[in-house]
Amino acid sequence: MKITDLRCAVIGRHPIVRIVTDEGLYGLGEVEFTKSYLKPFVLHFREALIGEDPTDVERVMLKIRQRGSFKPYGAAVSAIEHALWDIAGKAAGVPVYKLLGGKVRDKVRVYNGSIRQKLTGDRPEDYAADVKWMMEQPQNFFMVKQGISFHSNMKDTIEGFHYGVTQKKADYHGAMDQGVISERGFNHMLDCVIAMKEVLGDKVSLALDCGPGWMLPDAIKFARAVEKYNLMWLEDMLTGDYVPWVNPQAYRELTTSTSTPIHTGEQIYLRHNFKELIETQAVRVIGPDPADIGGIAELKWVAEHAYMHSILMAPHGVANGLLGLGALINVCATLPANYIAFEYPSASDPWWEDLVIGLPPQIVKDSMVDLLEAPGLGLDIDAEAARRYLREEDAGFFD
User: Fold this and answer.
1) Are 234 and 260 in contact (CB under 8 A)?
2) Integer CA distances (angstroms), 52 to 2, 68, 261, in order
3) CA distances from 292 to 1, 72, 172, 268, 325 (A)
4) Are 367 and 343 spatial neighbours (Cβ–Cβ below 8 Å)?
5) Strand residue runs (E) in the chain
6) pLDDT digits over 335-365, tens only?
7) Which domains does the chain carry?
8) Looking at the whole model, is its pTM more than 0.90?
9) Where's the Mandelate racemase/muconate lactonizing enzyme C-terminal domain (predicted)?
10) Backbone angles phi, psi at 227, to 5 degrees
């Protein structure tokens, strides 16, 4: 079997990768909906793939892996890797988790970071109302994740929140979103945590997505202040999102200063960049994203390495889409006992639920998802239904 084409079309907001072979098999991968601009970067790899056997996943990845980078550009390499595994599973007639060593669990636990309504404000009562709504959703999630500080609007809406450079409220999260947090800002965040915990109690766990952008002394002070609330973790306080480095030394100082679990990893590309973070016990929880790390094989390696160092695993995935859900389910079915849950990616647009073939009517039940048993990653796109969402330049995507 040989690869004859690499295609990429932006459907809705997601760049969708389609690898075509001379035997009629094809594989699909999905780039997060936040990265529609990556289509040209995906297609940059076309000539490297043509003529290769797609079932030799590692051989193909050796040709392109070094051309990726930290978030966002590792997403192009990752989506191609997913499509290769999709073909490999179809060619073997088995779900991809079988090719990764087989399942450890029959169902996979997920947490809620994506099914949410727009916050009515940034006051403690707004945060309490939001988690109450999340708590009442039919998926019965065991845990919800909420953004605070530099990963929320409070940095813009709470007067005097921090002493850093302020900017006009914008959806573009950048390096200006950082600085020393004021006493007013600190107390406001703490009030929001208290309000959310009063609603959630011990029925639903709470994690906080915090940044990045914190200065280390503030991070230590806050992590200690919330110890009594038994949070699942504090995520990306020092680095994360689009920060193209890791800073394990600072994370280690933060981690050793508190009993609150510290989490990072969503933006990190390749296993090599997790090595020091894991081997120095710099965090308690890592959260690589299969759509950014370089693919599902990379994520599995990192999970195994973390397990050997007693570090927990909670993969990121909020923007990965419903095809990306297939990659998450397959790899997380194979992970060791340090696995907690992955971040469930809901449909970026409601009509995606009509396009994706292979998902049950109710995907999440009691915070668990069933394994996908169809060959490959287990999901497909209804080509006829999807054509209406194709741009004119991508008219031949499904041909």
Assistant:
1) yes
2) 5, 19, 44
3) 27, 7, 19, 7, 14
4) no
5) 3-11, 14-21, 26-30, 107-112, 143-147, 205-209, 234-235, 262-264, 285-286, 312-313, 342-344, 356-357, 368-370, 380-381
6) 999 999 999 999 999 999 999 999 999 999 9
7) 3-93+381-394 (3.30.390.10), 98-376 (3.20.20.120)
8) yes
9) 124-261
10) -55, -40
